[in-house]
Amino acid sequence: MDCIFCNIRDKEIPSSILFENEKAFAILDINPMNYGHVLLISKGHYSDILEIPENDLKEILSAVQLVSKALVDAFSLEGFNLVANKGEIAGQSIFHFHFHIIPRHKNDNINFVRNIKKYHENQFNKYADQIRNAIQSLK
Ligand code: AMP
Ligand code: ZN
Fold first, then answer.
1. Spacing, Cα 68 to ligand 2 middle (Å)
2. Is 74 helix (H, G, I), strand (E, B) or coil?
3. Could you read off the pLDDT of 69-103 as tens digits, one per residue?
4. CA-angle at 37, arms to 34 and 41, nearest 5°
5. What domains sit in the chain, N to C, each tagged with a CATH number?
6. How far is the CA of 87 from the centre of ligand 1 (A)?
């Protein structure tokens, strides 16, 4: 299996690691949506959020929080977007779990287009029930 993030983790291809803990490491995205766009990558090769062992999540999220704070401080950010794509349909192109941390500034011209949908009649409750039932069956 050839995975670019595994290769970076194993230092088989050069990159500049910004931070690492036991379960995650951070690098700059090579095609940034904004300057300072960071990828926070799991050390284990798991394709996406659903595959990550629960035990790894705490360290991954704590790395996300630390690196996000550092980005805010380093670039005086007004905010950032935290994104994890799951599946090709959602825009995932590398199937090794990672968060994008995308710095945001006023007038930075980055658009995450949101075409808002509207629930009608009982649809809202129906969706809520379906989700609650699915959660129940996972317990
Ligand atoms: P996704 O489309 O959510 O799977 O994100 C994959 C990201 O990895 C993209 O934003 C790419 O620009 C980025 N990427 C691909 N190859 C490299 C690399 N060698 N170093 C850093 N980032 C990379
Ligand atoms: Zn991998």
1. 23
2. helix
3. 999 999 999 999 999 999 999 999 999 999 999 99
4. 155
5. 4-112 (3.30.428.10)
6. 14
